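Step 1: inspect the first sequence and its tokens.
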Amino acid sequence: MLTRTTRRLLVALAAALLLAGTASTASARNFSITGQSFRVTWSSLEFASAEATIRCQVTLEGSFHTMTVTKAAAELMGGISRAIVKQESCAGGTVAVFNGVERYNGTTTPNMLPAHEVYIGFTGTLPDISAMVPAVGRVRFGFRDASGFCTGQYGNETDLVQTSFNREAGGLVSEVVPVEGRNRLTLMRRDGGILCPTTVSVRGRGALMRQGTTTRIGITLI
């Protein structure tokens, strides 16, 4: 369930996007998605601040509530039930997702999943849009940079990391890219080091596929 605080944030965010013209809901059309269960993989997802950058292989798995997504800003469209950081792949430090399994700062992380997948809007012009833009909320990571400057937890209840599902001409999603400027995680707690940045930005180009396959998911207007 979305908390009252999260709902208020989503409503405010949706209103701002509508005013800016980036998430128009004037058309009655919906989005049709070719796969209900999904997997997003980044061979190198970057967690960056002015002080340090850590890169890791990251996988998110979950499902859309239905294969038809209503084009209504702030709509809860799905959830992420599994998140994995391949910690041995990390460079520049270590990252752990709070999934109840991975190790962070000498202990096993609590399980903060499921995370939320929320519809935000789209880019391009109807009917031939260039991308659908959802956001991931309620996910937490633990970071330790290689220098030991910061060991901290990032991702609070109201953080929403927007991702652009970029479409090819035929509708298949070619890549999943965090939206610059709307891709920040907030410091929740510093657990070690001298000082932690107040936010980190998430960057990278990932792939969206049907879960358990290498088949890319397509998005079309109906």
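Step 2: inspect the second sequence and its tokens, then contrast the two.
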Amino acid sequence: MSLLSVVRDVCAVVGVNPPTTMFGSVVSPRDQFEILSLANEMAQRIAYDVREWTQMKSFATYTGDGVKDRFPLPADYLRMLLTANVWPSWMARQPLVYISDTDEWLMRRQSQVAVTISEWTLLGTNMLIYPVLPSGHTVSFAYLGKNCIDLRAPNGDQNGYSDAFVSDLDRFMMPERLLKLGMIWQWKANKGSPYAEDMGTYTDALFMLAGSNKPAPVIVDNLPISRNATVALPWPNTWGVPAP
């Protein structure tokens, strides 16, 4: 469902004349301007503030050259995942040590503290890594992207991603119904109209989607598994007890 389709559905509920376009060469009417602003705000609110949706997660990998000690964060970087680590290629089960305090990072570099496990921190729009990555060595991490809008060309083809709508054909990365329901209750709240029931409908849809967005993995062997795993048969018989 395109942005224009979502907006027209919202207008049908809140009592606003549906627009023929959200973008034009002339000054937009006040309602149209407010609806576009609300669409961007609600899309970003859902994508950034609710949970770490699988649709918004990305991976990044840096390759060392023996010289660089910092690497630019990805162009679509919003923040690290809440449980993210930076994983080196040469020590697959031991992540790099995160130094959260900038002053501590500076102190450790100035005093040339010897480290047995490489360290990393964030500074500005860069990730700093110490010691310098040897040539050919890599580090990888997962992060939350900021581009929650699927851009569409005039013919409907995919045309990149953005953090805001730029055309009538653009699509929200999450289910558009959630965007529609969120816009309806927030529009009514902004205008001083009763909105409790609409917010409840939105919240129900939000919780249902959030709960199904990260299914628990199933254990089928004794390999390293996620903390969120759910035990299921078959399970390896390691205790010498005859299987039922």
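Step 3: confirm your contrast with the notes below.
The chain has two domains: 3-53+148-212, 56-145. DSSP finds five helices and 13 strands in the chain.
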